[in-house]
Amino acid sequence: MFARTPRLLLRPGWIEDAPALAKAINDPAVLRNLSRVPAPYGEEDARNFLSQPHDLRMPQLLAFTRTQGAPRLVGGCGVHLADDGAPEIGYWVARPYWGLGFATEAAGAIMSMARAAGIGAIRAAHFADNPASGNVLRKIGFRPMGRIEQRYSPARGAMADCLVFEEGVGGRMPTDVAIDLYRDAAPALAA
Q: Which of 59, 49, 74 is nearest to 109 (CA)?
């Protein structure tokens, strides 16, 4: 499963991505906002993550810049099953790319892919001291549920408050998912 956005290529992670993945995530400022990764995060952790099987209907992709040069790993985004079995979106962005809209772009593409695969009622949560993540969720059509959950943060070594979000009514689903995912692709020509 792959997706292109105006600035990103989202694709499955490959074992060859392990060094770049470890370098991008193993930043205390990134790790403290994640609940599903070990801290510190090394190449062995990256290899373990990249070799795990996952449900093909639930995209779990790395995001790379689409440049004329070598692509650069910007972050990751995916849908996973939460402890209660509900689908939940999660994402992270390497610190050099914070504030540039990459999380919103990647998460929007992942949501379109998940909806196209028939996954609905997706939730999300972010640590209460990370309001930027809440902004991303609002931009892609989520709304706060008014609920706070305690989640463990390995980097913090403690439980921390998380704000829980749900998809808004109707979300922001485009009429044609393919157009949203491949907006920059040339239209097919009839033979």
A: 59
- Tens digit of pLDDT for each residue in 69-80? 788 999 999 999
DSSP per-residue letters across 144-187: EEEEEEEEEETTTTEEEEEEEEEEPTTTT--S-HHHHHTTTSPP
Q: Which pLDDT value is given to residue 67?
A: 77
Q: Which residue in 130, 21, 149 sits closest to 82, CA to CA?
A: 149
Q: Exposure pattern of 4-17 as b/e (b: 16+ CB <10 Å)?
A: bbebbbbbebeeeb
Task: State both tokens at 78.
Answer: 């995916």
Cα(21)–Cα(181) distance, rounded to whole angstroms? 24
**Helices 43-51 and 18-25, packing angle to 10 deg:** 120
33-86 residue pLDDT tens? 999 999 999 999 999 999 999 888 899 999 999 877 788 999 999 999 998 999
Residues for the chain: how many in total?
191
Query: Quick one: pLDDT band at residue 119, thresholds 50, 70, 90?
Result: very high
d(CA 145, CA 167): 9
For residue 87, what are its two tokens? 């689908």
Cross-strand partners of 92: 76
